[in-house]
């Protein structure tokens, strides 16, 4: 890919400042933008999110699906997953048939039980719950024409939760009815 354009989207001003500083040595000079991934109105081919806290993972995946872009997402803060105006949980039809919203929220809370201060058996259960939350996300994307892999990054210390979702479009999205806000239409 000749002359790639890197656009960084971040909510925290401190992180944007770090990105600007570090980006000076990157080819193509990344363009940091404050805000949310759903507000990006440019064409792109790959979406990458590190430490995508709670529903931010779902925001990035959804934006990539709408753009038919590949995605690499490292979810975090599973306990912050909750219904919003744009997202309801569980995400996939299979999980909706098996779990209520409250049961899914319990699953998400358990998925946050992976910190080193917890006993090993509790961390193991937390890791399994993370896998289930991410499986729900991957099945949602697969129903919309994506091939998704859920994997664990190594070493374990590379990320607070070290799961990763990698998705690529395999067919057009024929199932989605998209809704947009007035701000997104401008």
Following the backbone from N to C, one meets helices and strands in this order, namely EHEEHEHHHEEH
Q: Tell me about the largest β-sheet.
A: 4 strands, mixed
| Binned strand content | 15-25%
Mean pLDDT: 84
Through-space gap between termini: 30 Å
Helix count equals 6
Principal-axes shape call: globular
Name the poorly predicted regions. 177-186
Radius of gyration using CA atoms only: 17 Å
Structural class estimated from helices and strands: alpha/beta
The percent of residues in helical segments reads: 25-40%
Strand order of the largest sheet: 3-4-6-5
Count of extended strands: 6
Describe the structure.
- With 186 residues, the chain is of the alpha/beta class.
- The chain is 36% helix and 20% strand.
- Helix 4 packs across helix 5.
- It is globular and about 45 Å long.
- Residues 177-186 have low confidence and may be disordered.
């Amino acid at each position: 890919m000749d002359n790639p354009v890197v656009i960084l989207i971040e909510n925290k001003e401190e992180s944007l400042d770090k990105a600007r500083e570090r980006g000076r040595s990157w080819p193509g000079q990344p363009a940091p933008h404050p805000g949310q991934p759903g507000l990006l109105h440019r064409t792109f081919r790959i979406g990458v999110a590190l430490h995508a806290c709670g529903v931010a993972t779902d925001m990035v995946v959804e934006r990539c699906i709408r753009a038919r872009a590949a995605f690499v997402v490292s979810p975090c803060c599973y306990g912050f997953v909750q219904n919003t105006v744009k997202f309801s949980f569980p995400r996939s039809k299979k999980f909706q048939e098996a779990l209520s919203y409250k049961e899914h929220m319990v699953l998400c809370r358990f998925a946050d039980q992976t910190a080193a201060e917890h006993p090993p058996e509790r961390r193991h259960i937390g890791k399994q719950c993370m896998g289930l939350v991410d499986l729900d996300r991957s099945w949602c994307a697969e129903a919309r024409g994506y091939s998704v892999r859920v994997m664990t990054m190594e070493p374990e210390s590379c990320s607070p939760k070290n799961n990763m979702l990698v998705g690529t479009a395999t067919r057009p999205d024929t199932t989605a009815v998209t809704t947009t806000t007035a701000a997104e239409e401008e």
